């Protein structure tokens, strides 16, 4: 219930104040495990990525956020779970994989932190998808969250990850690069439109 209220509120805010345009929502499977992989430029990216969709999106969030009195309770109730700085714990990975195996949707930013925007990308998203058999949907967030300026989100077609199922470090690097390449392509195409 809280998630639906929050989603509706963010959808309203993004539509009114950032002229949100969502493209390709039909590319997001309506059921089953899905990893949404997006570029990361702002703390607003998680609600922006999830607000146009009907399905609930779970996110990893910095463990410190859960220590903030009211915020920690709210983000926990809307499906976020903690990750420690400096690396994802085994417990967080197990929880993420279990969420996916249970048929849920997980939002991940392969770039890692916002400061790494445009970087090579981390292997976690690819690893989670390959361990769980989840569909991987690349997502491009285009814009700068300037008031009354257009923000666009593009959900690409699910990627075929079968070539990387070996699970070796090289497979994960290639899978991550394939995801990042498609996110960049969607971003470039949309930016020029």
Automatic annotation (TrEMBL):
* GO BP: any one term: phosphatidic acid biosynthetic process
Q: Which Pfam families match?
A: Acyltransferase (PF01553)
Instruction: List residues of the Phospholipid/glycerol acyltransferase domain.
Output: 34-144
- Asked if the Swiss-Prot or TrEMBL record annotates the protein with the keyword Plastid, the reply is no
Q: Which domain of life is it from?
A: Bacteria
The record ties this protein, via PANTHER family, to: 1-ACYL-SN-GLYCEROL-3-PHOSPHATE ACYLTRANSFERASE (PTHR10434)
Q: What is this protein called?
A: Acyl-phosphate glycerol 3-phosphate acyltransferase
